[in-house]
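User: Here's a structure from my thesis project, written as structure tokens. My advisor, Dr. K., wants to see whether a designed sequence matches the one we expressed. Can you design one independently, without my sequence as a hint?
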């Protein structure tokens, strides 16, 4: 309005100037003023073809569909997390039971001696079978057909202890290593045939195998004290082979694993076995050179060993 008013004021001044000089532009200025004063078209109005009637669309009422969708989505996520936490608690409980009963199997094997070897090993194998059927089967049922890798931290300690007990029994029985194919074969019967069988992964197997050296060290010391020097030397060679092979493998593993920490413990166990066997061999030879033939006079009750 202010601009139009100024424009009309300018037109009136020009008209006065022309009228003073004997001419009048009033007819032209009126038409031009009307053109300038015409209302401007609305740029937001849609184009309306000729002969049509533009109908205004009714306003859509606001609904709660979006909010209800978000509530349903979050309810599903909450149910998923609650079920996952409940499953984790059950898996932790099963893993703890496996750990406890696998340790009992290891303690049973440590009762071995010259006179009761067969009886002790048979009892330990029966206990290991019971652990498999009662506790490992429960863990398999919880993990099979699910995203079991999400719960690895929950069940890994029990699996490692189970591998340690099974490997320890196998060595005391045959003097050989229980490989991962053999231990996984024992778990196939526990799995549902309709689902993919749950298998022990390589990392848990290696971690469990690395713990065996500690039990081998205790077994070797016990066998030396019982006079079974040859068995102790066999244990020493077996532990040394495990450590040597894992030394080649550990640099290729992830830094986040616990393997590098366990390698230091393995080395300490191997060194203790070697020192014990070396001491018995050297001191037994010294007693033989001095003419002692009584086993009670030799080192910790071990018979004299002639080099």
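Assistant: Designed independently from the structure alone:
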């Amino acid at each position: 309005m202010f601009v139009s008013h100024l424009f009309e004021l300018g037109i009136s001044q020009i008209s006065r100037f022309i009228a003073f000089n004997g001419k009048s532009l009033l007819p032209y200025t009126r038409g031009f003023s009307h053109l300038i004063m015409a209302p401007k078209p609305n740029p937001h109005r849609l184009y309306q073809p000729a002969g049509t009637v533009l109908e205004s669309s009714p306003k859509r009422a606001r609904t709660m569909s979006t909010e209800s969708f978000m509530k349903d989505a979050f309810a599903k996520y909450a149910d998923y997390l609650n079920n996952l936490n409940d499953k984790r608690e059950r898996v932790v409980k099963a893993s703890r039971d496996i750990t406890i009963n696998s340790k009992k199997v290891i303690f049973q094997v440590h009762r071995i001696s010259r006179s009761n070897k067969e009886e002790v090993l048979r009892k330990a194998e029966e206990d290991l079978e019971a652990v498999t059927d009662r506790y490992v089967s429960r863990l398999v049922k919880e993990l099979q057909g699910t995203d079991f890798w999400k719960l690895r931290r929950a069940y890994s300690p029990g699996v490692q202890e189970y591998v340690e007990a099974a490997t320890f029994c196998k060595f005391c029985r045959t003097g050989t290593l229980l490989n991962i194919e053999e231990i996984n074969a024992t778990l196939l019967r526990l799995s549902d045939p309709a689902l993919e069988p749950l298998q022990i992964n390589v990392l848990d197997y290696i971690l469990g195998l690395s713990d065996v050296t500690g039990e081998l060290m205790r077994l070797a010391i016990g066998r030396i004290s019982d006079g079974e020097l040859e068995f102790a030397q066999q244990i020493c060679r077996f532990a040394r082979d495990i450590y040597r092979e894992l030394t080649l493998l550990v640099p290729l593993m992830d830094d986040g694993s616990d393997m590098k920490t366990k390698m230091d413990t393995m080395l300490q166990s191997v060194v203790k076995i070697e020192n014990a066997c070396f001491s018995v061999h050297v001191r037994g030879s010294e007693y033989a050179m001095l003419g002692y033939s009584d086993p009670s006079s030799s080192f910790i009750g071990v018979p004299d060993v002639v080099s």
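When you compare it with your expressed construct, this may help: The chain has a mean pLDDT of 78.
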